Model the fold of this input.
Amino acid sequence: MHKLVGQNPSPHTPTQRVSWSRVRGFEQAERTEYQLREPSFNRHFYKGYFNDKTIFLSPSVKENSSFSCYTEPLDDASPKPKVIKLYLGSQNLKISCHLYNVNEEDTLENRKKLLLLYTSSGLAPTIQIFNSTYSGIFYFRMKLEENQSTWTIDIPRRNITYNTDIAPIEEWFVRFTMHHRLNMFATEGTLLDVFREPLLQWHLGKPINSTEIAALIPDVINITVSKCPCANDVAVIALICNDTVHGIYLGVTYSGFISRETQWFNMTNSLCSLLDDDCAGLSLVNIILTNNHLIILTTLGLFISQDLRYPTGRILNFTKPSFCGFERDDYFSANVWYNVQCLANAESYEVDYISLSFNKDKTLSQVSTCFYSNDPYIEWYSCLPHRIHGGKTLSRRVVAFLIDYQQNTGIGLITVQNKAMVSVYKITDHKLNRQTKFPVFWFPDPKFLPFGMFFHPGSHFLYVYGSQVWFSDDGGNTFMLLITLENEIIIKTNMCVYSHSVAFVTDKGNIFFTKAGLERYAKLTTSAHDVFNLYYDHLGSLNIISLNESISDSLEVHLLDVITLIQEDDIGFDGPLSPQYITEQQMVFFEHIPLNGKSRSVQKSRFYGLHKGKVLQYRPRGSATIVNVFHHEYPPQYLSSVIVDVLEKFPFGSEEKNSFIRNSLRILKVSDTTRVKLQLVSEYYNSSEQVVSSSLNEFKPSDIEKTVVIPGFSSFLIVEVLDSLNALADATMPERVQFNKSFASDMWFVYDFGTKNGRRWKIIVDTCRYWVRELDNLPLNAIKYLDLTQTFNFGFRVTPVNT
Done:
């Protein structure tokens, strides 16, 4: 895996200057790790010295240290949070920090030793506070006092921001280092302005305690989470219950659920007041948090909160738009859609849109089955105008509808007679034009079942998901296939702006991962929970959120280590592979129909696009990168093949375990079958070939699923041992079989990529091969504005690992 690392560049490594672009890959910007590898210091083992400009360290200093920082006053002896979440109120920002060794216990004594070591050497931490439009550097006090265990800093609020109005504001990132630009112990975190964040100024309903939530857990069938567009650590979580429980229950967090401070509210009464207190059957369907409003979709209608920017000191009020002709059952299958955008420092023309789609055919009493509106959501429009074909109105079922803010278009995901398509319409004065902007895109697979659609925030990548995943980089004009699933469908998604990550969840609990715009993906894991949801916090950490009545706020938060999961996941399968050389550095592996076990009935290829870019690894050694996947019906008995670039040569089968390779080999035709016969021939003969007689050099049942490889000719997968001298095999390249020709023992060899003797190969994500370091210290999510004639250059250095 590639990784951005904070190391000083080697003077021998070339530097490349390029135009503004991004390095893409699973490894791109993996900054969900809160500590980087840096040397730590121990008074007894430290072998180095300081001068006014340079720190000299011996190679023996190899441990990991990181900062722990916090704004809350904490007891010196108490455990300190390892994830840095800071909060700015109406007063100054006061921060305390200490160093700790990630491999040792974080004790008060160790904190004092590390503080004394660095302060006496003239070093103290610095903090960089930044978002996409602001960056500032602040220095901690270099002061030693008796029993001091932390460095402290007091930053006036006005030095960070002058604004005090309630409005959407970008949550800041913070980066702590031991002295600015030294990149020692670089540790990242977030800073949230709780004084200005709109949602945090409100009581959403009647406060309830975790005991009341715990009583609901047995009846919860799903949970949904929605994040603040500008501050992803601020989120709402809502419970979707079965038909035995009625009501709306929401929780609010400002720490990304890690501080156990989730405040729960019962919002039933607030919504019932708009229904003339006729709340029978009121249940949650979905929630959306926009820049200025909380949107709640229920079984009894859509509810829109008052503007969150203007707190009243009272419980949050809602309005309920009217959509004529829809019943309670219609809202069960409805959904609300929102293209996430942060409107901090919004221009006058920037505005949020939401849409409501009823996944059903239109009836005579209904104006449309899909509606959209812009903030403040007073006037609603039909998502798609009907088009006339031969005088008849073509009825279409709208699955999802989004507004593309960049191109000012409306994009509809629609099914017509069980076939899916995407239509893109230009918007003028908030209304759709009747003419499409692009030709309609029809998804080619009639079995594709669409479920939803989203834009990745901060980019222009549009994803359509369901039983497959497609993505578009041009706003819906064209699409590329990313994922194809068998007997499952993607029903949940989550995205992160900071790390450009995308996560998908299927109805079977499988979790898949990719990066925005990347044509590869990986399976992370399968959730052990039946009821859960995914959540990316502001720093890009991916968490599984589930319910647990024994925890103080009833929420269990499990951090997924994405890097480890994608490297450990084996996406191989039980079935024999047959290798065929193209060159010494490139091979083809053919997937043969399984010959034994539970997979015997499998007649469909199990190589997919998922495998492209992964590594085929053999035990004890040997590996190759899969560069292409092909599905085919020829040669017979082979379902698919992959082309691989060899990284490390695969070992031949040894004579001890494959004694028959001591003989010559003759290839014979077999009548009425596509298979060939492999016959062992004595290596020692005069003018005529003789069949081998030694029992030590014969075929054995354990040789089934092994591959005979003859360079320059077809390979042969052994499928049946007829007797000790003859075996049936399937050729990988039938046109390149030399019949009735004998090959001496030194002209052919054997590989075992079968499963009969235990599968020795697996398919995994490749390990890190390069380190990429950006040289200009740019924030990861920095926005650069360029005119048409301008260019922006930045430099990065690529260093091979282990060189």
Summary: Residues 28-193 form one domain. The chain has a mean pLDDT of 84. The chain has five helices and 58 strands. The chain has four domains: 28-193, 201-320+528-561, 321-484, 577-764.
